[in-house]
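Worked problem 6 (solution included).
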Amino acid sequence: MWVHRSCSGVMGPLANEVQFTCKVCAGTKSKVGAKEFIIENGLKLEYVTSFTYLGDKIQANGGAKAAVRNRIKAAWAKWKEVASLLLKKGIAFKNRAIAYKIIIRST
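Solution. The predicted structure is:
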């Protein structure tokens, strides 16, 4: 069964903990230090330090370090997908450049 490492508190491989059930993930216990805001009609919102919105990482402190890191990771992932195509000598350089602009730079 898949669990969060931070929820389990287990140091080392989780495979040794066969019967672990995460109380936080199951919803029976709240996270330690979690802050909630109650809005009208009893709607609860959890305070988080960062979240993803429209593919960009937004941080509570206003920093962009995580957003930049995520964009770089996405670009490298796309590069790894199409590197064999872009490095082929049989394809014209102009066509490879167009593919690079469309696939990698747009990411």
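Discussion: The first helix runs from residue 5 to 8.
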